[in-house]
Write a structure and sequence with these properties.
Number of helices: 7
Largest sheet: 2 strands, antiparallel
Strand order of the largest sheet: 1-2
Shape: flat
Oligomer: single chain
Helix content: 55-70%
Number of strands: 2
């Protein structure tokens, strides 16, 4: 009958996980494997707990990472880890994490195509930038001028 669905259109494909299927309109589509957290998301309390837990832990990691960015250490790595935790439940975090990964890969690919003197110059520039940030952080936070202290040790 026109306008009604055919019997074979309503039946799910019979395949095992990892196989492809050729249902009408979806040629060679991979079957969806359930996410490990889908059992938690299946209950209203579990879904809420997962959102709160991911938001709290991910947010705390992002804030901690941002605090550590000007200091020597893995500040940006902690920020990215926080985004990964947030991406478990929030689409905006998944998009931001994908964007960050793409930019990091673009930068790495660009740098690897350069000659070793250019890479050394970029590395030296990064070292100088980190040194200036550490100097400024210590100067503002503790009132200690590391350059003057170092110069004083060198002159004695």
């Amino acid at each position: 009958m026109p306008g009604q669905m055919q019997q074979h259109d309503r039946q799910p494909p019979t395949t095992t996980p990892g196989q492809t299927t050729t249902t009408p309109g979806h040629a060679h589509r991979e079957l969806h494997r359930p996410h490990p957290l889908d059992r938690i998301r299946a209950t209203p309390g579990g879904r809420l707990a997962l959102k709160i837990g991911a938001g709290t832990l991910g947010g705390a990691l992002v804030v901690l990472g941002l605090i550590l960015v000007p200091l020597p250490g893995p500040g940006w790595l902690i920020v990215i880890a926080g985004l990964a935790v947030l991406a478990v439940e929030y689409a905006w975090a998944r998009h931001l994490l994908r964007f960050t990964r793409r930019q990091l890969h673009r930068w790495t690919d660009w740098l690897l195509r350069r000659s070793w003197p250019i890479r050394a110059l970029v590395g030296a520039g990064g070292f100088v930038l980190v040194a200036v940030v550490v100097w400024a952080s210590v100067r503002v936070s503790f009132g200690i001028d590391l350059a003057a202290v170092t110069w004083g040790y060198l002159n004695t």
